[in-house]
């Protein structure tokens, strides 16, 4: 299950406990298991610790600790094999050693999983941790009654030697590490002062940190992001400048080794996980009210409603101050993790064999995207460097630069502002027509990410990006990902009424969105439906949507009622808006939608029922007698309306009450009703 293995940062001083009242044999077996875990985690002698790439002093500390534990492992195995009774002092010693080995295992996990930068910052604390555990090992071994244990002389001598050496061991810190950390800080201070660091010095520092390629830097960035994830999940105070370090490493990677892009395997993994979820009916309570997708990081806003963190963060960043679901003003924008719901979602996913992970780095929008002067200046330098290269770069380099800008634009409003202010949008537009599929995907996704920041919408539209996005949306030569992200970008732009009106004037935009609504993935169809909703919200566009065949496509998602799993609410929302126009009402009535709408009053979600009853009410009021007769012939209308009166949303109850009154008047006097409403 995604995120289950995500490491939380350890507290070196955390309290560890020995097993509670263990038997001698179970204690020994547990010690053997711990010792094996530790020794197997460390590469064999003579091999460079390349996998973990830990700092020099910790390599030495790890090697020394591992050698001692290997000797203790021989002791534990001989004790197990002899099956002799252990004296109380031996059990006490082994209990203390169990605590020591737990601490060693946790400390090694920190060393192996932490980023190089964090290991450098924490070199003294890590060294202290190893020294403290070594001293605890020596203290425990002092009370071990070797003469009472049935072990070989060779093992006995080696264990006694371990005890002596551990007792005399001094804390080891490589003197080069404090100096290297000062050099890193000096370079970051230069960047904060808006000075370009010396490339020779930058290369020396990166080489000292074993960051010798773009791949090394990319892995370092991933680990820095995990540091933030761990601190955020554990609700810890972030004491170290992770964001500064991430921006510094990204800058160094770009200027020293060149831009890189997301690997295709990473993109495929996201789409596979999404498709797993698409095949299962997701409980409504597990879906975000904004994105309507399965929540992976649910948070509670000031009004008490729960949303996916990325979705509500985007809503707030766009300048909204109201709760999307309730419409109430939010007293503050603090987002509180809904841990209970999150646990339920993970349990549900586990039962259905679904692995979930955010398709976008949601927490980056909360922690790592909080810019400091250093990170902001580092991002500016990185973007300026990339954009200087972009126009004249080779096709492959352009693809990498577009991928780098796409990644940067994911991480918060400050980055999006920096990229747009550097005039990146006009330089990205030619890449929207690139022959290379990945280049085009990166460029369109970068535009999408930039459009999330409200002031960037005008920049994107004024640069002429809309026509490029529509061309991608309608082209059969582009990838599915490019078309879907193009639709998502149009949806983002359509939040502005003027741009929604603009899109309505472009027939290709409407036809492209309708085509995606017919044949796209669930995610793509949702974005297309949301874009169509925004376009239809501008009254002048409704007749154009009806003329383009939107009503038939939307009803096709509802007939039969389960054919558009996950899209009923979106389809009904657009139909409810179109039913506010004469053309929309006529098209809905002509397509014999009444029986289907009545059925949806019974079977759809609360929001879907609300829109279905609103459509029926509009049809009765303005189309008149033929619709009323058709509704009266469907017996299910009465229990469905009464159910809405008792259990529906506030708006659904109002609409249901109005429709009931109208139907009862017709039942009593159809001529009078006809005079009033036709």
Task: Kindly describe this structure.
- The protein has 678 residues and is mainly α.
- Among the domains are: 24-174, no CATH class; 281-353, 2-Layer Sandwich (Herpes Virus-1); 571-678, Leucine-rich Repeat Variant.
- It is built from 34 helices and three strands.
- Strands 2-1-3 form a three-stranded antiparallel β-sheet.
- Helix 2 packs antiparallel against helix 3 (88-113).
- Mean pLDDT is 82; it is low at 1-13, 45-52, 232-240, 264-279 and 357-369.
- Pfam families: ARM_PUB, PUB10_N, U-box.
Give descriptors for this structure.
mainly alpha, Herpes Virus-1, Leucine-rich Repeat Variant, three-stranded antiparallel β-sheet, RING-type E3 ubiquitin transferase, Znf_RING/FYVE/PHD, repeat, ubl conjugation pathway, transferase
In short:
By secondary structure, the protein is mainly alpha-helical.
Q: Please outline the major beta sheet.
A: 3 strands, antiparallel
Class of secondary structure makeup: mainly alpha
Helix residue percentage:
55-70%
Radius of gyration equals: 32 Å
The N- and C-terminal alpha carbons lie at a distance of 59 Å
Average residue-wise pLDDT: 82
The proportion of strand residues reads: under 5%
Shape: flat
- Which strand order does the major sheet show? 2-1-3
Number of helices: 34
Poorly predicted runs are 1-13, 45-52, 232-240, 264-279, 357-369
Number of strands: 3
Enzyme class: transferase
GO biological process, one term: cell surface receptor signaling pathway
Domain U-box: 281-355
GO molecular function: ubiquitin protein ligase activity
